[in-house]
Amino acid sequence: MRMSSTIRTGRTVKRTTRAAATLAVAALALSLTACGGDDDNGGGDDGDKGGASKQPASTVTLPKLDGESLEVAAVWTGTEQENFKKVLAEFEKRTGAKVTFVPAQDPIINFLGSKIAGGAPPDVAMLPQPGAIKQAVEKGWAKPLGAEATKELGENYSQGWQDIGKVDGKQYGVYYKAANKSLIWYNAQVFENAGAAEPKTWDELLNTAQMIYDSGVTPFSVGGADGWTLTDWFENVYLSQAGPEKYDQLAQHEIKWTDPSVKDALTTLAEIWGKKDFVAGGASGALQTEFPASVTQTFTGGEQPKAGMVYEGDFVQVNIAETKAKVGTDAKVFPFPAVGDTAPVVSGGDAAVVFKDSEASQALATWLASPDAAAIQAKLGGFLSPNKSVDASVYPNDVQKKIAEALVAAGDDFRFDMSDQAPQAFGGTPGKGEWKTLQDFLKNPKDVAGAQAKLEADAAAAYGD
């Protein structure tokens, strides 16, 4: 799959402007840990908090759909799924339609293919990759957004967030959910006990890790059982170290994975992954640790948790809430440190795509493009919306509020998750492609050349080169 080298916007943006914007976002993110000390933990402990009855006056017009039934498919589970169901419940209340959530599995394109082959596609599916949207369009499955949904999207989203949901100039996706994937969360008590401060550079991060290790706690928790977390590690190191132009070229497979810049990034990653005492459970333990557990084990166990830090996006807050740790006091966060000249800012997201073109499905897409819908889930925590019309005050703590403000302030100036831009066979399938090769690399970080060769072979096959 090929994407524009200007953050999938199809427009030329000056690199100096992009760098300045990235620096501004990173600077704003640096203020995160000063916030949130006395606020809610963002986990939605109050069952009514952010519920439909407390929403502001409607800003979106929806049709009456009494008697209509829809299915929405997504890979979301646990709290994330339950919170999204509250958004669907409000749509039901406003329209009279009945919406059923259909749990999907990764890779979602394969799941959708089986549903379509059986004659039972969902009305709408939440696709976590631009590459998946493109594949759904190429297969003739996805339907373009209607006039009302497109209008709502245009009013509430920056051009960049609109354009990553386009294929061949047509609008197919509504990026309902976004993520800031350049954050490292830490156990505040562990840092205090170790006398550690928040690092701003990679070298400082290594020094901080050593201080935590010396205090008797393993520095990092890594959810290596889920290969996507490892791609996120790589992308942050690569973007900061190689720079945005190389990042865009690698994302489009315009340069090979055997490029020296990839060698440099893998070698840098090995400074943490290759030091078994720095990763909870060592490589074998990390490869058996799923993402949710990688978070919860960082914030449980009192002063002796299994790890002092965990890397992942703003959505980590949902899992932190399960531990009863309080975001902003017990659990704090700092931006992914700069490996090169500039700290990385990597975004991700999930887009609503219509698979059965009807008044009801288009109305649901319109609803998901509205600030009304996003505000419901934003209030519940662990959620970030690229919808610029959402009032940041709805977020449940100052940490999440600052993250949301940074995302909106960035406008079109961000880098989207690299693996999510790739064909799913390479960047989005458990046990295959980039996910599998980086899991193997976590197991054997000395084999940089072998990892590069395997990544290139798999990428070439997936991109059809």
UniProtKB/TrEMBL annotation:
The residue range of the signal peptide is 1-36
Q: What domain of life does the UniProt record list for this protein's source?
A: Bacteria
SUPFAM superfamilies given in the database record: Periplasmic binding protein-like II
Q: Which UniProt keywords apply?
A: Signal, Transport
* Pfam families to which the protein is assigned, alphabetical: SBP_bac_1
Q: What family does this chain come from, according to its entry?
A: Belongs to the bacterial solute-binding protein 1 family.
Q: What is this protein called?
A: Carbohydrate ABC transporter substrate-binding protein
Q: Which organism is it from?
A: Streptomyces coelicoflavus
